[in-house]
């Protein structure tokens, strides 16, 4: 029997971690047409949760991702899509759980199946219309609760021996990484340089680049090298080497896959071979960078931003999971009641890999 109310962690506005409120009597969602109701088993954390809470996406903010409140946020462009966020909001994009009910038009055969939720909300008559896209846990309520609902076309039933917590590490990080690599057309013969390799997307970039037959050079702080090594990069460099060119002597970097940005950014671009590609889906070390147009055009470089990716990227990741071609990088689990502590650990990079909360 589905209860009328549920436990949920609710975001009440932009700001610090005190903007989260714990509720034990929040209304359980009701699935609408083509929707399924999911009893959440686990939900991963990602940078979008932090950036949306703090309002970092606003152009009024030019600082690195800090996880704290900013002195100035323009509410009109405070989300990934440059639009206002409505409150209260239940965040949590990386939901995994069991379908317990369906709305009108949704196939009831999915009831009882374990599913992963795709992060992107789409107009399914135009699934690649980026102007109509939204994000789960941002433009609608997400998985930081006992129950959530999602469009049946944006979930995948999955057969896997992995736990709910392990499965909750994949959706945002790995689909983001797959979209980046698609945009950069990474394949055999490429050498991919990955700054921020100890994070969720960085770890996914390592595995998915190797799956495509590329050579991978990861960058991470020395303390995290042992964990990064488990993901199979060909080489691991320091996070901020004194002389990156010397470290890369003999390497031909054809792709930089970046979610870091910041002061290191010009050095990364300088490492690209003529005709190389740069793909980006984040800027945790700072969104404002020094860009020399001469490097860009004289070397025939291609730059791609990667946010709203193809639905196929999600279903490809699910296939890789079921085939055992990629593995989860689960760093730690926390009860949902400790979401603030979990997010602080995520911000402080206390763990290598993904952090997951359990309702």
TrEMBL record:
GO MF, one annotated term: crotonyl-CoA reductase activity
Listed name of the protein: Crotonyl-CoA reductase
The protein's assembly and partners: Homotetramer.
Matching InterPro entries: ADH-like_C, ADH-like_N, ER, GroES-like_sf, NAD(P)-bd_dom_sf, Quin_OxRdtase/zeta-crystal_CS, Zinc-ADH_QOR/CCCR
UniProt cross-references to Gene3D superfamilies, sorted A to Z: Medium-chain alcohol dehydrogenases, catalytic domain, NAD(P)-binding Rossmann-like Domain
GO CC terms, sorted: cytoplasm
EC numbers, comma separated: 1.3.1.86
Domain of life: Bacteria
Subcellular location: Cytoplasm
Residue ranges occupied by any Enoyl reductase (ER) domain in the UniProt entry: 15-357
Predominant place of localization: cytoplasm
UniProt keyword annotations, A-Z: Acetylation, Cytoplasm, NADP, Oxidoreductase, RNA-binding
UniProt enzyme class: oxidoreductase
């Amino acid at each position: 029997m589905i209860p009328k109310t549920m436990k949920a962690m609710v975001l009440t506005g932009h700001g610090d971690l005190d903007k989260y409120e714990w509720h034990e009597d929040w209304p359980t969602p009701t699935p609408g047409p083509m929707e399924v109701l999911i009893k959440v088993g686990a939900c991963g954390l990602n940078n979008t949760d932090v950036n949306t809470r703090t309002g970092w996406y606003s152009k009024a903010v030019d600082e690195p991702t800090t996880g704290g409140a900013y002195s100035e946020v323009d509410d009109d462009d405070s989300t990934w899509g440059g639009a206002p966020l409505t409150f209260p909001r239940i965040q949590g994009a990386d939901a995994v759980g069991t379908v317990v009910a369906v709305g009108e038009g949704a196939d009831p055969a999915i009831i009882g199946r374990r599913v992963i939720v795709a992060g992107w909300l789409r107009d399914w008559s135009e699934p690649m219309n980026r102007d109509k896209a939204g994000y789960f846990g941002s433009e609608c309520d997400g998985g930081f609760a006992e129950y959530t609902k999602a469009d049946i076309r944006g979930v995948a039933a999955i057969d896997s021996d992995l736990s709910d917590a392990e499965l909750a590490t994949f959706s945002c990080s790995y689909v983001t990484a797959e979209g980046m690599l698609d945009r950069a057309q990474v394949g055999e013969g490429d050498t991919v340089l990955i700054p921020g390799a100890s994070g969720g997307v960085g770890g996914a970039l390592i595995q998915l680049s190797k799956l495509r037959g590329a050579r991978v050079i990861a960058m991470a702080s020395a303390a995290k090298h042992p964990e990064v090594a488990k993901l199979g990069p060909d080489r691991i460099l320091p996070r901020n080497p004194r002389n990156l060119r010397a470290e890369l002597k003999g390497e031909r970097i054809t792709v930089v896959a970046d979610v870091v940005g910041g002061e290191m950014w010009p050095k990364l671009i300088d490492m690209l071979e003529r005709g190389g590609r740069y793909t980006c889906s984040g800027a945790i070390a700072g969104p404002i960078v020094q860009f020399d147009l001469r490097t860009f055009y004289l070397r025939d470089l291609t730059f791609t931003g990667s946010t709203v990716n193809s639905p196929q990227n999600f279903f490809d990741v699910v296939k890789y999971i079921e085939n055992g071609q990629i593995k989860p990088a689960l760093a730690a689990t926390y009860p949902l009641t400790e979401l603030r502590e979990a997010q602080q650990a995520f911000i402080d990079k206390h763990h290598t890999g993904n952090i997951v909360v359990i309702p």
